[in-house]
Write a structure and sequence with these properties.
- The complex is a heterodimer.
- Chain A is α+β, with helices and mostly antiparallel strands.
- In chain A, about 55% of the residues lie in helices and about 15% in strands.
- In chain A, helix 1 packs across helix 11, helix 2 runs antiparallel to helix 9 and helix 9 runs parallel beside helix 12.
- The longest helix of chain A has about 45 residues.
- Chain B has a single domain, classed as Rossmann fold, CATH 3.40.50.300.
- In chain B, strand 7, helix 6 and strand 8 form a beta-alpha-beta unit.
- A six-stranded mixed β-sheet of chain B has the order 6-7-8-3-9-10, sandwiched between helices. Chain B has a four-stranded antiparallel β-sheet with strand order 2-1-4-5, with helices on one face.
- Chain B is globular and about 50 Å long.
- Chains A and B meet through helix 1, helix 10 and helix 11 of A and helix 2 and helix 3 of B.
- The structure holds adenosine-5'-diphosphate (ADP) and magnesium ion (MG).
- Adenosine-5'-diphosphate (ADP) binds next to strand 1 and helix 1 of chain B.
């Protein structure tokens, strides 16, 4: 039987039983809609979470071990020797030092180059951490340098990529400051600071002098509420202010592959150091929770699709039984058993496709509705997504494909039933 | 055109085995109009289903329109029903959900692979022509339920003739019709015979058999 004949006759049959067709299409549609909706939701929320917690699956943050344990195992402080040994661990591609600045730095004037309503007398303590240039080299603005500058020159700093969002959504509104317009080029922005000054009077150093920080880039590898400067700058300031060298605050290891991370973490612990799970663990836990939830919902949707397939199987079986004589008539006119089987399958496929297309459309509309409702109800917060759904092109194929496949699967038994009709017996 | 030799057809009725056709022979020449008469239950329909390739479960030899039915596969039998024979039944056997013209188009949808098949549009044109030949051009879009018995049977005849078969097999074609409609059907058969179609009608009605050139009696599973 030619495809055009098959489609012609199948659609005639579907049209002649509009009620049954509508019911079956609705069944297929519900399954497809639920599947597409939940898969799109899982991906959308996953993407939103990744924006909020940009955990790099290849990074391991090594921190000094507990004192007693560290001493016993030869661990303890993260000095240059420890860094060298960490760099030699199998699977490690790079090891970068982080050193928190123990000299207070404060900003009491607006950055130069942006219009900002900096309140008079308003001083912000700036947490500063020194990092190796290698950790953030790919985040530097083009042509930017990340070295300890000669005396009198601005110190290059990197800010968390997320700080801007947090500033706009929480800090600025709370302190009634101007929001930074999106797309503003902040590179090279100079921030006048006072080195040695603390808003806690007792912590202010004997010597306080003016310096400038120059924004050299934005990075996800900088802690959210601190600015990163070259690690050499921190060591120089510690020397200037007579701070004892107590080792690095942490060492960031970059694994060759994410799979290497557990092994590296175990080796680090054996060396007597601790691993700071920090944001990566949050990101992983959030990611896992989202994957599991979305997976469960998608499974539920698949179950609904399976139920739809069962419903279609049921109603097609009834329809085939009711049409036994019609089938025998078609056979008397030259239909083979294969033609009859194909006809039932084609009817199911058409219903499944129609239901799938409809379901995908409904899922998309429902997603738009949920987005509109959620965004209308939720307050503005950092990293608030503009949508909780992701609709890549393949999801439309998935919806219609799964729906058609389920309908076809449900039609297998009725189609076999139809193919077994004996014309000589059924026609009289 | 139709040659049946030593045809025996048995039905199993629980434990009992009943031979409806017993060592039956039948010869119908090409272009002949033959009637087989016999009382109800004598096996007339059974004979027709064997000759038409609807029932392959029989003993003996059946050659119809040049095809040895015993040697055909199920697929080849379907192809034979599609192109070599046309059926007309007492109860019309139209699909109730399809308009007359779609019913007439049906055989064209099952043209086997290897034989050029018409497009749906061409098929509709041919079906309308066939309906015109039986005088129903104006009722092509009606559902069977909105046609009279005589009109339904003429739709069925148009359908049987769509693929221009060599043989027409009719099972009590006037059984459900009034005298006037029955007469119209008989006229159509006579016209087909003039066009060279071989017609085999099984009936228990005198008015049909009187139009036939050859009348055979089915008794005790054999023809006399
Ligand atoms: N599928 C069947 N199973 C058992 N018996 C059957 C079957 N079909 C027909 N018969 C029997 O075969 C006999 C002939 O039937 P049929 O050919 O329909 O007769 P007719 O058409 O002459 O009235 C009847 O006795 C009928 O009961
Ligand atoms: Mg009969």
């Amino acid at each position: 039987m030619r495809l055009r004949s098959l489609v012609h006759l199948a659609s005639l049959n579907l049209r002649s039983d509009l009620r049954g067709t509508a019911v079956n299409t609705a069944a297929a549609c519900v399954g497809a809609a639920a599947l597409v909706f939940f898969v799109a939701l899982g991906m959308g929320v996953g993407q939103a979470a990744r924006l909020m917690f940009p955990g790099d699956a290849r990074l391991v943050e090594v921190v000094p071990g507990a004192v007693s344990l560290g001493a016993a195992l030869g661990g303890g402080a993260l000095d240059d020797g420890a860094v060298a040994r960490l760099r030699e661990l199998p699977g490690v591609d790079g090891a970068w030092r982080r050193l928190a600045l123990r000299v207070p730095i404060a900003a009491s004037r607006a950055p130069e180059g942006v219009r900002m309503n900096w309140p008079t007398g308003f001083t912000v303590q700036v947490p500063v951490v020194g990092v190796d240039a290698g950790l953030v080299s790919s985040d530097l603005a083009p042509g930017g340098k990340f070295d300890d500058p000669p005396a009198g020159e601005a110190i290059p700093v990197l800010a968390s990529r997320r700080l801007l969002e947090v500033y706009n959504k929480t800090i600025a509104p709370a302190w009634n400051l101007r929001r930074l317009p999106p797309g503003l080029d902040l590179m090279g922005l100079q921030i006048p600071v006072q080195v040695g000054f603390s808003i806690i009077p007792l912590k202010t150093e004997d010597r306080v002098y003016d310096a400038r920080l120059a924004l050299a880039g934005l990075s996800d590898r900088v802690p959210l509420y601190s600015l990163a400067v070259p690690v050499e700058t921190v060591r120089r300031l510690h020397k200037e202010y007579g701070k004892a060298d107590t080792g690095y605050s942490s060492v960031i290891l970059e694994a060759r592959r994410p799979d290497d991370v557990p092994g590296i973490a175990a080796a680090v612990r054996r060396m007597g150091f601790a691993v700071d799970e920090g944001e990566r663990a949050i990101a992983e836990r959030v990611g896992l929770a989202i994957t599991v939830t979305a997976g469960a919902l998608a499974l539920l949707a698949l179950l609904m699709t399976a139920l739809a397939a069962l419903a279609i199987a049921q109603s097609l079986s009834a329809s085939v039984r009711a049409r036994t004589r019609d089938i025998a008539i078609l056979q008397s006119l030259g239909a083979t058993a294969g033609d009859v089987r194909a006809l039932v399958l084609a009817e199911a496929a058409l219903v499944g496709l129609a239901g799938g297309v409809l379901g995908v459309g409904i899922a998309w509309l429902a997603a738009r509705g949920v987005d509109a409702a959620a965004l209308g109800l939720l307050p503005d917060f950092p990293f608030r997504p503009t949508t909780f759904f992701l609709f890549p092109a393949w999801i439309f194929a998935l919806g219609t494909g799964v729906s058609a496949a389920a309908a076809l699967l449900g039609a297998l038994a009725p189609a076999a039933l139809a193919a077994r009709v004996d014309p000589a017996r059924a026609i009289s | 055109m139709i040659s049946l030799r030593h045809i025996t057809k048995r039905f199993h009725d629980g434990e009992r085995e009943v031979a409806v056709l017993r060592d039956l022979d039948l010869d119908v020449a090409a272009g002949a109009f033959t009637a087989v008469v016999g009382p109800s239950g004598s096996g007339k329909s059974t004979l027709l289903y064997v000759a038409g390739g609807l029932d392959a479960d029989f003993d003996g030899e059946a050659v119809v329109a040049g095809k040895d039915l015993r040697t055909l596969s199920a697929r080849e039998r379907a192809s034979f029903r599609n192109g070599s024979v046309g059926f007309v039944f007492q109860s019309f056997n139209l699909l109730p959900s399809l308009p007359a013209v779609e019913n007439v188009m049906l055989p064209g949808l099952f043209v086997p692979p290897g034989i050029p098949a018409p497009s749906i549009g061409q098929l509709r044109g041919r079906a309308l022509e066939a309906l015109d030949r039986v005088g129903l051009a104006d009722k092509a879009s009606r559902l069977p339920g909105r046609l009279s018995g005589g009109e339904r049977q003429r739709v069925a005849i148009a359908r049987a003739l769509l693929s221009r078969p060599a043989v027409l097999l009719a099972d009590e074609p006037t059984g459900n019709l009034d005298a006037v409609s029955g007469e119209a059907v008989i006229q159509l058969f006579s016209g087909m015979v003039r066009d060279g179609v071989t017609v085999l009608v099984v009936t228990h009605e005198e008015r049909v058999s009187s139009a036939a050139g050859q009348v055979l009696h089915l008794e005790d599973g054999r023809l006399r």
